[in-house]
TrEMBL record:
Species the sequence originates in: Hordeum vulgare subsp. vulgare
Gene3D superfamilies assigned: 3.40.50.920, 3.40.50.970
Record EC number: 1.2.4.4
Key word Cell cycle present: no
Cross-referenced SUPFAM superfamilies: Thiamin diphosphate-binding fold (THDP-binding) (SSF52518), TK C-terminal domain-like (SSF52922)
Keywords (A to Z) from UniProt: Mitochondrion, Oxidoreductase, Transit peptide
Protein name: 3-methyl-2-oxobutanoate dehydrogenase (2-methylpropanoyl-transferring)
Reactions catalysed: N(6)-[(R)-lipoyl]-L-lysyl-[protein] + 3-methyl-2-oxobutanoate + H(+) = N(6)-[(R)-S(8)-2-methylpropanoyldihydrolipoyl]-L-lysyl-[protein] + CO2
GO process terms (BP): branched-chain amino acid catabolic process
Stored InterPro entries: THDP-binding, Transketo_C/PFOR_II, Transketolase-like_Pyr-bd, Transketolase_C
Primary localisation category: mitochondrion
Location of this chain's protein in the cell: Mitochondrion matrix
Annotated CDD domains: TPP_PYR_E1-PDHc-beta_like
Listed GO MF terms: branched-chain 2-oxo acid dehydrogenase activity
């Protein structure tokens, strides 16, 4: 099915002159916006809202992406019947099996096909069933997708590529279904890495990722697929990439996180407030390129920083944040940057509660940092 779809796409499109693929540039955001279909460059607030969970918000975003751009395709393992987390439910029935289809159980093939499809001026929305399964596709993503534009001198690109994948703890996943591999991809120039914290964020950030003129890795917190529910606009809207959000104002310490960990950090902020500690909480939202200015401004005010993520502490993206802020705010820091993260072990099953960066661990680190 994947091979036949690619042949049909190739038959309809041709590679044009230097810098143009299928008659359309993807070299930068301005060029993409200028060439985009009417209404694609700017979106409203999405209109009236309705309370939905996170997987439903993702499903809404995929429906809109396919409906507003006939060049969009959704594919991956089992997406034809809705996927294991039901994020693609109803897509094949509405848009047909030529645009929404299952692939072989081969992540390298999924990524390679997606790169080729995007290179032919399409929106390739590929699903890797679990983030733990993305490693066989690592070579395609890192050595092909990330470098496609650079190595061709901007004559060709695969900027229409978005790879979705559920990441992180799920309560019973063990070491093959609970990993958080975002730091691997943050190390690669040419990719964007986006992780939402909630249903509204997931829909707006996913639509922005799909329409962004660069390859995007979009990790979805599987823990929150059904657990997180909030009011989400039913229409079409996008949230800005590479723009962090201050979701709680504070004066004593800055807390930074992303994805499912934001809920844990928010609980820690509440507990710390009972002891008179005022926490400022920031959702990074986009890890690469990340919003250093927002974090720097907050730390310049509070003088203290704590970063928390589920991935192992060594080499985690929290280390990059800590190093960057130490460089930018060295004279204003009043305590060492704290990191509350997963342990440097394979993700355990029965000992998951000891591995996870819990609320109590974060509260202890907040108090130690504030009282340094």
């Amino acid at each position: 099915m994947a091979t036949r779809a690619l042949r049909e796409v190739v038959g309809r499109r041709r590679v044009g002159a230097a810098g143009i693929v299928g008659g359309r540039r993807f070299s930068d955001t301005a060029a993409a916006a200028a060439a985009a279909p009417a209404g694609e460059a700017e979106r409203g607030d999405g209109g009236a809202g309705k309370a939905v969970n996170l997987f439903t918000a993702v499903n809404q975003a995929l429906h809109i992406a396919l409906d507003t751009d006939p060049r969009s395709y959704v594919f991956g393992e089992d997406v034809g019947f809705g996927g294991v987390f039901r994020c693609t439910t109803g897509l094949a029935e509405r848009f047909g099996k030529q645009r929404v289809f299952n692939t072989p159980l081969c992540e390298q093939g999924i990524a390679g096909f997606a790169i080729g499809l995007a290179a032919m001026d399409n929106r390739a929305i590929a699903e890797i069933q679990f983030a733990d399964y993305i490693f066989p596709a690592f070579d395609q993503i890192v050595n092909e997708a990330a470098k496609f534009r650079y190595r061709s001198g901007n004559e060709f690109n695969c900027g229409g590529l978005t790879i979705r994948s559920p990441y992180g703890a799920v309560g019973h996943g063990g070491h093959y279904h609970s990993q958080s591999p975002e730091a691997f991809f943050c190390h690669v120039p040419g990719l964007k890495v986006v992780i939402p914290r909630s249903p509204r964020e997931a829909k707006g950030l996913l639509l922005a990722s799909i329409r962004d003129p660069n390859p995007v890795i979009f990790f979805e917190p599987k823990w929150l697929y059904r657990l997180a529910v909030e009011e989400v606009p039913e229409g079409d809207y996008m949230l800005p990439l590479s723009q962090a959000e201050v979701i709680r104002k504070g004066s004593d310490i800055t807390l930074v996180g992303w994805g499912a960990q934001l809920a844990v950090l928010a609980q820690a902020c509440e507990d710390a407030s009972k002891d008179g500690i005022s926490c400022e909480l920031i959702d990074l939202r986009t890890l690469i390129p990340w919003d250093k200015e927002t974090v720097e401004a907050s730390v310049s005010k509070t003088g203290k920083l704590l970063v928390s993520h589920e991935a192992p502490v060594t080499g985690g993206f929290g280390a990059e944040i800590a190093a960057s802020i130490a460089e930018r705010c060295f004279q204003r820091l009043e305590a060492p940057v704290a990191r509350v993260c997963g342990l440097d072990t394979p993700f355990p099953l029965v000992y998951e509660q000891f591995y996870m960066p819990t609320k109590n661990k974060i509260v202890d680190a907040i108090k130690a940092t504030v009282n340094y």
